[in-house]
Amino acid sequence: CDEHANKIYKHNMDGTLSVAIAYDSPDELPSGLAWGGTNLWSCDEHANKIYKHNMDGTLSVAIAYDSPDELPSGLAWDGTNLWSCDGSTDKIYKH
Fold first, then answer.
1. Do 94 and 81 meet the contact criterion of CB atoms below 8 Å apart?
2. Rounded distance between C-alpha atoms, residue 52 and residue 63, angstroms
3. What is the pTM of this model?
4. Per-residue model confidence (pLDDT) at position 59
5. b or e along 48-75 (b: 16 or more beta carbons within 10 Å of the residue's beta carbon)?
6. Do residues 54 and 60 touch, judged by C-beta distance below 8 A?
């Protein structure tokens, strides 16, 4: 994700990592991505949201959740849980 261009990029996996598709981010400061097995998740520092995206080719928002704190800055999926970290509190959250 690119917070300056407000984009989420899907890359080609052909050895070049060139951009296959550029999607508009749901808000102004995308700050983290995680693949949850069936869905892409993103977070945004400006909106203080965590987004679950539709995987229908549009990457539209399926659900938007409030972040536990002000600056969500990273996401991870462990196979069962989504994890987020926050830059304002230096905390890690298990969802």
1. yes
2. 5
3. 0.91
4. 94
5. bbbbbbeeeeebeeeeebebebebbbeb
6. yes
Would you say 31 and 43 are in contact if contact means Cβ atoms under 8 Å apart? Answer: yes
Residue type present at position 74: G
Cα–Cα distances (Å) from 46 to 3, 80, 94, in that order, read: 10, 27, 21
Exposure of 18 by Cβ count < 10 A (0-12 exposed, 13-18 middle, 19+ buried)?
Answer: exposed
Kindly state the DSSP code that residue 6 receives in the 8-state scheme. T
Q: What percent of the chain shows pLDDT beyond 90?
A: 96
**Secondary structure (DSSP) of 26-88:** SSS-EEEEEE-SS-EEEEETTTTEEEEEPTTTT--EEEEEE-SSS-EEEEEE-SS-EEEEETT
